[in-house]
Inverse folding.
C-alpha cells in the first residue's frame, strides 16, 4: 500500500514568548517544494533546538497524518496551519491505529522505519496558543510518530510513501500510546512493549521504569 505526501516541512530555531521567558524552538516549520536530502539524523536544512528531547537517530523524521487535521481544527476552533504538530512529513492516511512499531516505508529513495510515537511537549501548546494541546494529544492518542532512517536518500511531495514491510506482530502506535498514558497499564502490558525490539530506547526506558514501579 502507498499514499502520496501532503507536505514536507523544514524549520530553523526561533525565539518565542512563554510567559515571562523567551524559549528557543523549531516547532514552527514551513513547507518546501524542493527535493530534500534525508540522512541518518533527519532532513537537511531542518534544525532541532532542543537536542535533549528532540532529534537523534530514533527521532530523525516526525510524521503526522493530514487526516487528523479536521479533528484538531474543530477542537481548536481555528485553522491548524502548516506543520500543525511540528512534523517534517505530513502524510495522507497511515493513522496511529493503522501502523505498527517497526513498519518500514520507502520515502522517495530513502527507506525509513517507525521507531516510536511522538510524545507531545508544552511547545505544542505554545504553537496553537492552547496549553491543553499536549494533554489532548495524550488523551486521544493522535500523536503522529517518528521514523528512523534505514537508508539515506531524497524525497519530495511528488513521491509516494509506500509500506514495504509490515510488523503486524508488533503493537500499533496507538497501542503504545495507550500503554504509556494509561495509569492502569499492567506489568504484562508493559512487558509486551518491552519485547518490541524495534521500539526506540527512550520508550524502552519509560516502560521499564513504569513496570518497576508496579
Amino acid at each position: 500500500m502507498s499514499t502520496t505526501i501532503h507536505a514536507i516541512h523544514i524549520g530553523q530555531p526561533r525565539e518565542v514568548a512563554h510567559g515571562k521567558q523567551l524559549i528557543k524552538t523549531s516547532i514552527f516549520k514551513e513547507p518546501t517544494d524542493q527535493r530534500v536530502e534525508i540522512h541518518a539524523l533527519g532532513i537537511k536544512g531542518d534544525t532541532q533546538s532542543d537536542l535533549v528531547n528532540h532529534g537523534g537517530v530514533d527521532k530523525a523524521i516526525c510524521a503526522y497524518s493530514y487526516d487528523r487535521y479536521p479533528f484538531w481544527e474543530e477542537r481548536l476552533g481555528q485553522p491548524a496551519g502548516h506543520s500543525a504538530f511540528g512534523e517534517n512529513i505530513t502524510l495522507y492516511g497511515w493513522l496511529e491505529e493503522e501502523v505498527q512499531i517497526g513498519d518500514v516505508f520507502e520515502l522517495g529513495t530513502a527507506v525509513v522505519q517507525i521507531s516510536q510515537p511522538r510524545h507531545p511537549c508544552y511547545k505544542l501548546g505554545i504553537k496553537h496558543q492552547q496549553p491543553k494541546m499536549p494533554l489532548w494529544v495524550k488523551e486521544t492518542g493522535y500523536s503522529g510518530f517518528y521514523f528512523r532512517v534505514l537508508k539515506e536518500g531524497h524525497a519530495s511531495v511528488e513521491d509516494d510513501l509506500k509500506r514495504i514491510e509490515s510488523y503486524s506482530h508488533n503493537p500499533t502506535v496507538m497501542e503504545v500510546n495507550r500503554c504509556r498514558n494509561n495509569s492502569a497499564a499492567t506489568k504484562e502490558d508493559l512487558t509486551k512493549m518491552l519485547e518490541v525490539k524495534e521500539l526506540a530506547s527512550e520508550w524502552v526506558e519509560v516502560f521499564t521504569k513504569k513496570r518497576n514501579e508496579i
